[in-house]
């Protein structure tokens, strides 16, 4: 029972970052319909930016997180602006090939810039774990969960409660009508991709100090994010948030009770099962995909 | 002229080991040929049915592992039952590897073709990742990350003819070349058969194809079986040539290599994967004199983006268009004029 409680706590922490990854991708893949293989690279980029600001420049830990997220947003916006803008409306395979090309470039640039040796980011939080009855967790992991939940809430508010969010939703429902109503849809496309990328970078910046940072850490992150998006239903933000926690739970239980080698297989098994039996996702309200 | 081009190319490539004796270059060509075979199989799905399978390396790896385990033998216990397999000759491994990969193509086809487009891509990627994790973690069977070393080279022949072991680079070169020629003919016959027409019809307009009575599942699954078996065959050749395999064979980058070969050469053309395979088989040899592997991959990525922007159909259709282009006004008015203006500018 104590072991199960500990697994549940771990689920919450991984789930928070998975939810960030998933929400980021549901904006890009679910709403913009771009099969974004660079999502994991933005996650890696966020982690390296965290390393750059916090460890190399020695900046404040929390300021570094904010800077890493901002850097991810800028890079995401640049990807949309340079690669995707001219191919808007192209079929899904075309943009997918572009994203695979970009993914290879990013990964190898990271490898060249930072080298293949894993980097660790020391955190200023106390080493002493936080003990709550039978479960213990480090201050760092608790901080990760709090920041992740705050970012999820902020994204929800931006999409559902602000004018920008309204413009986004309008653009992706019917971009022509949105344009006629005076929405600058070019700016909306770039902003949405930037926002999705910023969330991936946030996940990287938060998990970087927990684990270590390597150039290939994003490969699995991309695929896990796809699993979360499919689980939650395309374009469904709360679905992606819940999907993130479900994936984390499945991995934690799989690793704890089956075999730790198959931890990463859980996401793929989920993808296959969901797509075969409920392709609209677990929380789909209506069919939104064409 | 165009009809004889494949035969001329075949004769040219058959002559290569006669004048190229450098072992490293021959090795490069053998590996390029194996990946070319895999790219040809991917082209069947991506080019002719229009379904992008990004898990294609799974078939390649399944073929390689099946053949390696058949010829090495293994012993494992499942639910208390002890299963021991004595080593069999490698050519049986090649046949079994091809068959098992084709069977996986059937199963994946049956499952994955319930979904299309981006979903299909993601199901195939997931399939390849699951297979990679099984190869990594089922240590009792696959030796996990410790790899399967000492895979015997392919041996062909009967008692009354004597045996031939494919050990040297030149022997393997001819073996791979023969399989490429074989696969080329099989794919050509398939594509120009009613089955191939049905596949192309499904690519062009699925709704219309269904309305005239073409069974979607049947033809897509057929393509997946062929494609999987051919990729598995390439994998078996790889295993017996390199003689050691590990779970790295399932790397996503291997699938990306095949995809780049197909889209650069021209998807949906017979010659496309061959041309793409040659370019990306030989490019590393030239590039490695100047740049490291990272820069090489960056160049591949840049090239992929450029191809999508500049030559979305690939090289082969572009060349065909160039030869079949209608004459320009300058050419119609007599080539002497065009020549003169050219001279004037120079």
Describe the structure.
The complex is a heterodimer of chains A (290) and B (346). Chain A is mainly α and 290 residues long. Chain A has one domain (2-116, 134-277): Orthogonal Bundle (ABC transporter involved in vitamin B12 uptake, BtuC), CATH 1.10.3470. Chain A is built from eleven helices and two strands. Chain A has helices spanning 2-31, 39-56, 61-84, 92-114, 139-161, 163-173, 175-180, 185-207, 218-232, 237-258, 265-277, and strands spanning 130-132, 135-137. In chain A, helix 2 (39-56) packs across helix 9 (218-232). Residues 286-290 of chain A have low confidence and may be disordered. By secondary structure, chain B is mainly alpha-helical. Chain B has helices spanning 5-19, 23-49, 56-72, 90-112, 117-137, 139-142, 169-192, 194-204, 206-211, 216-242, 252-265, 272-287, 293-310, 315-324, 329-332, 335-345; strands at residues 74-78, 81-85, 155-158, 162-165. In chain B, a hairpin with a 3-residue loop joins strand 3 and strand 4 (162-165). Classes of the chains: A mainly alpha (290), B mainly alpha (346). At the A-B interface, helix 4, helix 9 and helix 11 of A face helix 5, helix 11 and helix 13 of B.
